[in-house]
Amino acid sequence: QVQLVESGGGLVQAGDSLRLSCRASGPTFTIRTMSWFRQAPGKEREFVASVNWSNGKTNYAASMKGRFTISRDNTESATYLQMNGLEFEDTAVYYCAAQTRPRFNFSGTWPNDYDRWGQGTQVTVSS
Question: Is 41 left (phi over 0), alpha (psi -120 to 50) or beta?
């Protein structure tokens, strides 16, 4: 099965930037879509952005569009999340997710759309 490992989180000040990385291993040829979600304390897991593994098409949550950029490197089996203009409200654990199985009515914005998850990386933004 595909394994995902995130890195790049940390403590930053409001207005700073961070770049998260997620590296996949195992049968990466099975990856269809990769995404980033985040979960703040006491809140549900929230969709951030996704990228289609074959054609590179991206999708963003409305509140992140313009500040966050998702990209992929198929040769490295990695996806990245560039986060600019970070705000206190961006504080959360950020998770990388991969869809490796076909799913009926796949939207890409729901956690249940994905079958593989990383362990998460903490992003803390001080105001």
Answer: beta
